Amino acid sequence: MFCRALEQYGHLHALGFKRQGSWERITYAQYYLQARQAAKGFLKLGLERAHSVAILGFNSPEWFFSAVGTVFAGGIVTGIYTTSSPEACQYIARDCRANIIVVDAQKQLEKILKIWENLPHLKAVVMYGETPVEKVARVYTMLFNPHTVLRGLVHESGLDRIRNTPWPVSVS
Asked: In this protein, which residues make up the domain named AMP-dependent synthetase/ligase (predicted)?
């Protein structure tokens, strides 16, 4: 469905948001490229098919890039409320087998750092919107820029192959 919208409306605005008091807009084409970039990053960090990327942050373009990127990479999107306690975050992240947790702020990162050792599937945390106060292993900063797309994390054909591979059917 997203690709159909891209073909028909790629040059039109898909998202509008305010940053530092002024409106910015992102076209469907830019949205698609940013979501693919997120997908490549998640795969590079170890996202496994049918595992989750949990997103712990307020609505923002980065939230949506991460969500669509997760789907492009063969993962499952799981939202976590920013008001959730560390214990609630742990329950959700463990239950959905989160390989990656995306956070929007230091406050959210601190919740995850408290519970990380109890999350056996967690491989990395990605932070957007802020830079971590201190360097922590396996915590990465993801800078989304609607006008720039970085390349080289995962080959384009590999990402397309994942996107086009059907999911196995489970009757359990």
From this structure: 5-139
